[in-house]
Amino acid sequence: MSTYTYSAGPGMLPKEVMQEIQQHLLTFEYDGISIIETSHRSESFQHVVDSLEARLRRLMHIPENYAVLWLQGGATLQFSMIPMNLRNQNRFAYVDTGVWSKKAMEDAKHFGQVDVIHPLIDEAGGMSFEPSLVQDVDYLHVTLNNTIEGTRFTNLPETTVPIIADASSNILAEHIDVERFGVIYAGAQKNIGPAGLTVIIIRRDLIQSKELPSYLDYASHVDTLFNTPSTLSMYAAERVLKWVEDQGGVEAMERLNREKSEAVYSFLEQSNVFSPLVSGERRSLTNIPFTTGDHGRDLSFQQFAIERGLLELGGHRSVGGLRASLYNAMPREGAERLVDVMRAFEEEND
Ligand code: PMP
């Protein structure tokens, strides 16, 4: 019986990629030493960096007027690096779509005034915002996919200011039109690779040195490895991105993610025991919160699932209930298995 983890992150990685990493762990390329021991300034590691960036550029169609940076500190460090680097008038707009967007705006408040914009929900349950509310600010920040609440933007109107997107839980999982954004950032640990790596895709004209401490200044990182990066995570990410390309790219991933989430949602829609917590078009493709409506029964289901090899189905502590994260590396069978186990629980408990 296969074991699956529905964790919101770190999430599953493709098994064949992990096996490849295991095989190459002791002798990486021609140096005869491990990737862990390889200097980030070596020629062989430079190949990894170049290939990682080239793959991401191909997969996301990133034009040359955007720089790609590989930093540490998680998406969380970007909550402060963004306002620090992009401030001019020291006023920013944030669409408040959940826990992570709130954390982003709390950090931004250290650097200026934050205008809070509430999302618009249309009749079909799509999520958007009112662009006329975005005025006299340095940028507008959106969380494209809300990992905890299981929602996503379905429409982003044009604004007069750069849009900054937290894409931590949907990067490479669905199409993102890079040129709509000033900055896209994401922690790697859901769809890119192991934890310890954060990617920042930034329009070059937005990088203007603000005399910040060196690591915190985007300008330090453009087209160079400024300091020792997370080498093992970068190597693993390069292999994961090769896997994504081999699978057919972001388009194929999005198709698979739609199929997986539809399989789970269509079960939840007709279940007598479980119900989804989000309705309408804003449903995330990657994070599905649901519940039995009873805390004790949610916990019993989690235990029932663990006994059948399905791990990490607990909801985030802020919303409770249950949650299944179905990132790129979760195979179709993982979504089907979850439905089978929910059905078995329902038969025992209905
Ligand atoms: N933003 C979103 C949308 C997230 O899901 C997360 C992590 N789950 C974060 C930010 C924080 O990321 P990190 O742990 O890499 O700082």
UniProtKB/TrEMBL annotation:
**Cofactor, how bound (note):** Binds 1 pyridoxal phosphate per subunit.
- Where would you find the membrane-spanning parts of this chain? none
Q: Which Pfam families match?
A: Aminotran_5
Can the keyword Amino-acid biosynthesis be found in this entry's annotation?
A: yes
* Pathway(s) per entry: Amino-acid biosynthesis; L-serine biosynthesis; L-serine from 3-phospho-D-glycerate: step 2/3
Which residues bind pyridoxal 5'-phosphate per the record? 75-76, 100, 147, 166, 189, 227-228
**Keywords assigned by UniProt, alphabetized:** Amino-acid biosynthesis, Aminotransferase, Cytoplasm, Pyridoxal phosphate, Serine biosynthesis, Transferase
Q: Does the keyword Ligase apply?
A: no
Q: This protein's superkingdom?
A: Bacteria
Name all Aminotransferase class V domain ranges. Answer: 4-338
Predominantly, its location class is cytoplasm
EC number(s): the record gives: 2.6.1.52
Compartmental location: Cytoplasm
Q: Which GO terms describe its molecular function?
A: O-phospho-L-serine:2-oxoglutarate aminotransferase activity
Instruction: Name the cofactor(s).
Output: pyridoxal 5'-phosphate
UniProt catalytic activity = 4-(phosphooxy)-L-threonine + 2-oxoglutarate = (R)-3-hydroxy-2-oxo-4-phosphooxybutanoate + L-glutamate; O-phospho-L-serine + 2-oxoglutarate = 3-phosphooxypyruvate + L-glutamate
Q: Which residues carry this modification: N6-(pyridoxal phosphate)lysine?
A: 190
If you read the UniProt record, what top EC class would you report for this enzyme, in one word? Answer: transferase
Subunit organization: Homodimer.
Q: What is this protein called?
A: Phosphoserine aminotransferase
Which species does this protein come from? Exiguobacterium aestuarii
